[in-house]
Amino acid sequence: MFHVRALPSLTRTGVAPFLSHRRARSTSSISAARTEHAPTVSGRGHSSPSSRANEISVDFEQTQEAYKSKDSLELLRSLVVFKLCSYDFLVDKNKELSTLGQKVLGRTLFNKVMKMTFYGQFVAGEDHVAIKPLIQKNQAYGVGSVLDYSVEEDIDEEEIQQKEPCVSAADPSSNDHGEKRYKVDSELRSVHGEVTTAPTYFHADEAKCDHHMETFIKCIKASGGASMDGFSAIKVTALGRPQFLLELSEVTVKWRRFFNFLALQQGKVVGQVSEQRVENAVSPLCLDRSIDVLDWNSLLDDRDKCADLLVVPNVKLGKLEPLLKDFSDEDEKQMQRILQRLDALAKHAVENRVRLMVDAEQTYLQPAISRLALEMQRVYNKEKPVIFNTYQCYLKEAFDSVSTDVALSCREGWHFAAKLVRGAYMYQEKGRAEELGYEDPINPDYESTNRMYHRCLDFVLDEIARNGNANVMVASHNEDTVKHTLRRMNELGLMPRENKVYFGQLLGMCDQISFPLGQAGFPVYKYVPYGPIDEVMPYLTRRAQENRGFMQGVQKERGLLWKELRRRAASGELLHRPVY
């Protein structure tokens, strides 16, 4: 058991006045926000007769409306692709089969086959010119686009930098406050060998980071040129060294765990994390009588002023040690370079009237990614939501992350903007937790994840109804979740035209959800990958693997596709062509 020793007051560092100002401003801004944005529409939050008259319901069984943007060959292609993706052998051996197919058919014929099947189903085209017809067609039927230039690189062993050793940032239950260590090179190789939901870039070259930034800029411009109010997806691992993101995640998680430890020690672990405070009697870093988690986290923003006073417990040694002892000047420069690249992307997004979607990645990188996303939201979300951060609801701490960030946005006066996903790193994260011997960060089962998703979603929807400064994309293929969202929107009096609640699905999947929503007036988007066939093959490989479970469970969608084909055959509409 360690004991917290008294440290000099932070007042001498100049941080105390800064935080006092933040605290005073936050209290008044929250009150002002709740007054200014207090709902005045009758029925918001209540089921009054007028609100019930405005309720919107969506029928996801009407195949004629759901598939009128598709010709019959496209419906047949969907049936074939979904069926093929349900066979484990084809999914497990897809790389080998692709290589064999190119040898037997030749590259030209193989590419034609891919365009007729998997590539044509899940990818919009080879470049920003080729994708425009599909984007414009979808937009004509009420569905927008989240563009993602999906060229991915396989990781060579030489590209993975060696480093001795680095603290795991994804150890949410460790009793030694982050002292579990592992070699980054072996962990990154382990990561590369698993199924992931979004590409994680590993590179040692700053020039490659700049190249990735330029690629994202092209994607942003393509999104702005192809549609109005679109989205563009970006990945922070493409903009900086993953080893740095590991280190920043380590610092962030250790600091948060120390707050949790102090709150537990004082018996303050009640209510939401954002409402918890620790008292000056125990914490050496409290400035007044107590401090909440938001101001606690903000101390990291002033690490240059109080680095010597930012300490965390080392259980093994039984004493406090500097939090930033392994955070070098080069790490600080790396953080500034990543922020500069993110800033350049955000500026291009504003110029092109595009919103940026920051993709979520593995848990041991995510604390750093979320922190960098918050830095950009503070700057660019003041007037309207431009930067959207992604929250993975299969994580046990998802609600704490969402509620804390919502509270921070209210305190500082910017628009909270989130994409809620269930997550697709489940098997990787579970395996890693078992290998390193820490508690699994993933919810124990699918139902737990559903409950977490709906809890986070309900919290954000309530915040939207309360002050209008929050925004959320419900990125889900789960029909029950979509129906739950519609029901809650009706209860809260949230209308589609307010553009506060968005829906998102992948291109080539769940059209029976996306298009009825769009035609009913809801803001709905398809995640639209594009890129050359040869270079997009890793994306298609990953997509087939990560959606294996989902594809095996699309009996309803396949049934609806057959139902529509039979309807067209009976009514003489097999030659149906979309009109837009």
TrEMBL record:
Residues 26-55 are annotated as: Disordered. Its cofactor is FAD. It is an enzyme of class 1 (oxidoreductase). Belongs to the proline oxidase family. GO terms for molecular function: FAD binding; proline dehydrogenase activity. Residues 45-55 have a biased composition (Polar residues). Converts proline to delta-1-pyrroline-5-carboxylate. Keywords: Acetylation, FAD, Flavoprotein, Mitochondrion, Oxidoreductase, Proline metabolism, Transit peptide. Signal peptide: none annotated. Residues 202-551 form the Proline dehydrogenase domain. The keyword Flavoprotein applies. It comes from Neogobius melanostomus. Pathway: Amino-acid degradation; L-proline degradation into L-glutamate; L-glutamate from L-proline: step 1/2. The keyword Glycoprotein does not apply. Its EC number is 1.5.5.2. It comes from the Eukaryota. This is Proline dehydrogenase.
